[in-house]
Amino acid sequence: MNLCIALWNQVRWSWRFGAFGFRSRLACPDLVLNARRIRIGRQVLISKGARIEAIDSDRRGEIEIGDGTSIQMYFHCGAAESVKIGRDVLIAGRVYITDHDHKFDHPELPPRRCRELVTRPVVVEDGAWLGEGCVILKGVRVGARAVVGANAVVTRDVAPGAVVGGIPAKEIKRIDFSRPPES
Questions:
Q1: Residues tagged active-site
Q2: Helices marked H in the chain — which ranges?
Q3: Quick check: is 82 in a domain?
Q4: DSSP reduced 3-state for 177
Q5: Do the domain assignments include residue 181?
Q6: Global model pTM greater than 0.85
Q7: pLDDT in tens, the chain (183 residues)
């Protein structure tokens, strides 16, 4: 990235966020909510149309994005408790990550009026790849170098090196990193 662009992004964003690493770039976000509770590492790319929301709740949501992560267009991340994205993660377009749901079984209030949230932290470990349009729901840990297929809905933990897909996501195979890749 050009040094002038890097400096411009640093000046433009660093004072707003809890942390904004050098050479990171945030291009035309649609919404950034409670930016002081969002930490972005070094050399992170977040393409246009992102919605990054650290929700005000009793747990005060926090979002952390590790060094070298690349996030494509129309990413949406909501944290009422905690969402941690590791280093060198590849996130395709239209990916949604959330650590919360609205309480829907309140005896008197419909979900729209009920302010209660059900939360569990989300972790995406280093080197994972989240495919186009996938959804990562509350309480999920995506293991290191795991691959989540396009449009998958992940409701349970994904093992390191696993490839998952479908609704709900199921393991398709495991990547053996001890053998050289096939040509």
A1: 102
A2: 3-13
A3: yes
A4: coil
A5: no
A6: yes
A7: 578 888 888 888 989 999 999 999 999 999 999 999 999 999 999 999 999 999 986 778 999 999 999 999 999 999 999 999 999 999 999 999 999 998 777 788 887 787 788 899 999 999 999 999 999 999 999 999 999 999 999 999 999 999 999 999 999 999 887 777 776
Distance of CA 33 to the CA centre of its chain: 15
Task: Round to whole Å and give the CA distance between 183 and 25.
Answer: 34
Count up the domains in the chain and report the number. Answer: 1
The answer to whether residue 91 is domain-embedded is: yes
Domain, as residue range, for 89: 3-174
CATH number of the CATH domain containing 111:
2.160.10.10
**In-domain check, residue 137:** yes
CA dihedral 115→76→33→65, nearest 10 degrees, is 120
- Looking from the CA of 80 toward its CB, the CA atoms found within 13 Å total 16
Can you tell me the distance from the alpha carbon of 152 to that of 165, in angstroms, rounded to the nearest whole number? 5
